Amino acid sequence: MNIKARAFNIMTRTRDACEAWERHQAKGNAYFSSLSNLVAQQVATTASGSVVRSYTSASRLDYKQSAAISEIVALLEQLKDDLVEVMNVFMDLERDAKQLVDKALRDAKPREERVIPPLSNESLIAVAAVTPERAHKYTLAFCHNYHQEIDYKMVLLDTLPQGLNSVEDINALAFRWERQPHLEPEIKDDLYELIRLYKNIKQSVEANDDFVA
After folding, report:
1. How many CB atoms lie within 10 A of CB 15?
2. How many CB atoms within 10 Å of residue 17?
3. Which of 100, 122, 148, 211 has the most CB atoms in a 10 Å sphere around its CB?
């Protein structure tokens, strides 16, 4: 695999890491929504008094609700490990990209300039190709942003036990979780567009070569 192919591979793995993070983010959104509903039910049960208590054991209902809440809290705690795992992937990708930049610099040799026709297949692929420097720029940005976001989320989840007192407290935590203030969507959009563009050009060129052949 040549240098640019390896750089593109790093970019696609970075995209995969972003998608893994978003899956965990979506889980967190769902967990907070469930938690809000459960606490609301618990509050309603307590306030409903004799109507509910005439049909079911209050202690048994309270136990089931508390158990369900504890289960959701445990799932949110598990998300800490899941997010750390993704963060480790970003760090590995940044390291791999840096090593690739260093290798490209070491292997670079002076050579005569070769003129590539501006509309040739080779020139089209070269324009869309990912350089090691570009791959490192993206992975460095993602590593920085996601590191800040994971620190933010860890603090947020650490406050969860104190945030179970009311639906309002949980909804406030859910809002903070959903915001992801340290991430920059435009960088991810640029990454996705770069990958899409390169794949489309490469497929088009290869299809044209097959047609000519």
Report:
1. 18
2. 22
3. 100
Q: Which helix H or strand E contains 62, and what residues bound it?
A: helix 58-107
Q: Are 177 and 28 in contact (CB under 8 A)?
A: yes
- ∠ at Cα 162 (73, 72), nearest 5°? 10
For 106, residues 6+ apart whose C-beta sits below 8 A from its C-beta are none
Contact criterion met (CB below 8 Å) for 132 and 7: yes
CA 183 to chain centre: 9
Report the distance separating Cα 83 and Cα 158, nearest Å.
Answer: 14
Cβ-contact 28, 104 below 8 angstroms: no
List the Cα angle 127/4/19 in 5-degree steps.
95
Phi, psi of 177 (to 5 degrees): -65, -45
CA distance 50 to 36: 24
Tens digits of pLDDT across the chain (213 residues): 789 889 999 999 999 999 999 999 999 999 999 999 998 888 777 665 544 444 555 567 677 888 999 999 999 999 999 999 999 999 999 999 999 999 999 887 665 454 444 545 555 555 557 899 999 999 999 999 999 999 999 999 998 877 677 899 999 999 999 999 999 999 999 999 999 988 888 787 777 655 444
The pTM is what? Answer: 0.83
